[in-house]
Amino acid sequence: MKKVILMACAVAMLATVQAKPVDNAKLSINKNNIKVWTFQNSQNPVFLYKAETTYDTALEKAVSLILDVDHAVQWVPYMGSIKVLSRDDKKGEFLLYMVLDFPFPLKDRDLVVQGKMIKDAQGIITIKNKAVDKGYAKNPDYVRLTHYEGDWTFQKLANNKIKVSTYGYANPEGSIPLTFVNMFVQQQPYQMLQKMKMELGKPSSIPALPEALR
């Protein structure tokens, strides 16, 4: 069973080192029960973001969707392909190779994501992701992303009621106008959480979570 973590992003392409919006965060989107905040710091011209929503579903089902690598291309925006390079379900560690399908005329991006999944004493599940510049040979057809950090957080609020948060930052590299990148940062997490709701609404069984999350 090829299950492992998705990057927040693709996102799969963007994520944040912050646990909550900072003082200068702007509520950029607030509709359909989804909120997206964007903010900047002195080190990064590209927006960072936080997005959150609630779903009427089991926590295990939502986490399993994120871990279902084979299914990711069907619903994660801009996800071209994803491959599991290594995984240790007992330790909750994984390594992924991802290709992001950027719109023409932009060159597609790829990245190697190192991740960790954790369940705390309160039952909150966190999936942390970070790009690493090793583990997979570079392909001249793609622009390699090396500056990416992000995470997902899943919290049970009641029976079949959960809160899902995703945070992110990434440098898309290459010659892309900053205004385009920052617009993408606002829209991508919103689109992803909407698509996630649609996927969770489909009837399916609830797979067992990896050992590290039980």
From TrEMBL:
Question: Where does the record locate the signal sequence feature?
Answer: 1-19
User: Where are its TM segments located?
Assistant: none
Q: Which residues form the START domain?
A: 37-205
Q: Name one Pfam family in it.
A: START
Would I find Signal among this entry's keywords?
yes
Which keywords does this Swiss-Prot/TrEMBL entry list? Signal
InterPro entries listed in its UniProt record? START-like_dom_sf, START_dom_prot, START_lipid-bd_dom, START_lipid_transfer
Q: Which SUPFAM superfamilies match?
A: Bet v1-like
Q: Does the keyword Signal apply?
A: yes
Q: What is this protein called?
A: START domain-containing protein
Name the lineage. Answer: Bacteria, Pseudomonadati, Pseudomonadota, Gammaproteobacteria, Moraxellales
